[in-house]
Amino acid sequence: MSNDQLRKIASTLLAEGKVKYFLGNVRGADGFSSKPTTARTPEEANEFVWDPSCVNNMASYLHEDKKRILKRGEEPDTRPIGIFVKGCDSRSVALNIQEHIFEREQIYIVGATCEGVVDVPKLKKAWMKRGLPVAATNTLQLSIVGNEVIASFDGKQEKFAKDDVIMQRCKVCRYPNPVIHDELIGEQVEPKPDAYPDLEEMEAMSPAERWAFWTDQFSNCVRCLACRNVCPACYCRECSVQRSNPAFGPRTTPTEKMAKAQFSNKTPTKEDNFNFHMSRMYHMTGRCTNCGECNRVCPVGIPLRLLTRKMDKDVRETYDHESGLDTEPKNLLAEYRDDDPEGGFL
Amino acid sequence: MTDNNENNENFEPKIIAFLCTWCSYAGADLAGSARIQYPTNVKIIKVMCSSRINPLFVLRAFRKGADGVLVSGCHPGDCHYLTGNYFTRRRLILFKKQLEWVGIDPRRFHMSWVSASEGQGWADVVNKVIDDVKELGPQDEMKRKVVE
Ligand code: SF4
Ligand code: SF4
Ligand code: SF4
């Protein structure tokens, strides 16, 4: 149903030439997941899917447009980019507009209200446990009805409890309806209550326990930088934690030295991983929209969402700031109020 | 931990202090010219404004083996550049919370406002920081272990 709606909108836009290309999801090779893709023709757009397997935040792929170098003599294409967003992705797009990476009219946003998306590894596990045929996934259709994820294949239906298989971020999602959009698919969805149940366990720990927990986690990090690459808010040309070793000569000016200062070495040692994660966390302060992509892509399963959620909570409690809710320029660390709290200054 | 406590008697912490040149550095200068005694554990790095201090500098100091870090600037409203320290305030308060979240003792990292006329104030801040860090013992968590 919603598949058809998305396909129709996207293919019409492409056929009429209103967008230069359209970012959306198609079915992945394993039959469960979806993979992000760029559609340039209406036919390609007719492959799009919109179902609970669309975990990818398409806003991350907007940055590719900035990186592309024009061929000699090529005129820049000024048409907007079409993009498919869920509630959480729309905040990432809004953040990019707030930070002037894109202007509002450069992006054509097709939003979809969202009941939640499945955690594909979890679903696969549950699938295997029940001994369901893997071949059936070729015809798999996913949908969420009430508290159940329904997988239908070959005319049969299989039901999974929603809480067991959906992404952790969807259990606390406060913006399931896109905050900005040009076109909207689906009915409005009830947001989850404003609470941080996922942080409670960690908050109850003592500092020593937290340190033990995080050193253990950080020492697993292989510094693949997937968490950085996938993040829709990370778009620097040169990342502060991934600088090439600077050559210092007698004529290197202090300014050049400063610009090349290395804050963490590339080797994934425990201490450098700590530095990397603290840098990433700090750079996301007041910008992270809690899309949870970093957590999803980490190959060693570091719960990065615990860092970003905590930050989100701090920022909201202390400064009543939340990024990516509209397109007005707004930046927590580039603004101030005279009466900001004074906590902790001697 | 017992090791630390035994050594605490003669443990001389290394404290890196980032001071803004207009207020805090002048304050430290005043403490010197007024011959106010304070411990020599503080190594001062002068910057033009406290908002020049990237929180990553703090991490870098820890990584290079500092036992404690102090950042100090003008009182809010007194900034030489009018608004610099308002930004510092937001950054550092949040940064400190993040350090706490991963389990770093908040007493390792201090922030203060010291004006150019507060020579005694500066000495008090330094004493407080050194007391705190001495209590904690040497910092080994964030220090880089391999030779650069
Ligand atoms: S976080 Fe919200 S908008 Fe995003 S996928 Fe989950 S339910 Fe949908
Ligand atoms: S994705 Fe995971 S392993 Fe890779 S750099 Fe990030 S935290 Fe480390
Ligand atoms: S830090 Fe993680 S949760 Fe936050 S915007 Fe980036 S990918 Fe999303």
Overview of the structural elements:
The complex is a heterodimer of chains A (346) and B (148). With 346 residues, chain A is of the alpha/beta class. Chain A has 2 domains: 183 residues, no CATH class; 138 residues, no CATH class. Chain A has 13 helices and 8 strands. In chain A, the strands form 2 sheets. Chain A has a 5-stranded mixed β-sheet. In chain A, strands 5-6-7 form a 3-stranded antiparallel β-sheet. In chain A, β5 and β6 form a beta hairpin. Chain A is globular and about 70 Å long. The model of chain A has no long low-confidence stretch (mean pLDDT 88). With 148 residues, chain B is α/β, with parallel strands linked by helices. Helix content of chain B is 41%, strand content 16%. A 4-stranded parallel β-sheet of chain B has the order 2-1-3-4, with helices on both faces. The longest helix of chain B has 18 residues. The two termini of chain B are 28 Å apart. The model of chain B has no long low-confidence stretch (mean pLDDT 87). Classes of the chains: A alpha/beta (346), B alpha/beta (148). The interface between A and B is large, with 48 and 42 residues. The structure holds iron/sulfur cluster (3 copies).
What can be said about the biggest beta sheet of chain B? Answer: 4 strands, parallel
Total of domains of chain A:
2
Strand content of chain A: 5-15%
Tally of helical runs of chain B:
5
Give the uncertain stretches of chain B in residue-range form. Answer: none
Bound molecules: iron/sulfur cluster
Largest sheet of chain B, order of strands side by side?
2-1-3-4
Report, as a whole number of angstroms, the end-to-end distance of chain B: 28 Å
**Topology, number of strands of chain B:** 4
Strand line-up in the sheet with most strands of chain A = 2-1-3-4-8
List its salient traits:
A: alpha/beta; 2 domains; five-stranded mixed beta sheet; three-stranded antiparallel beta sheet; 13 helices; 33% helix; B: 148 residues; alpha/beta; 5 helices; 4 strands
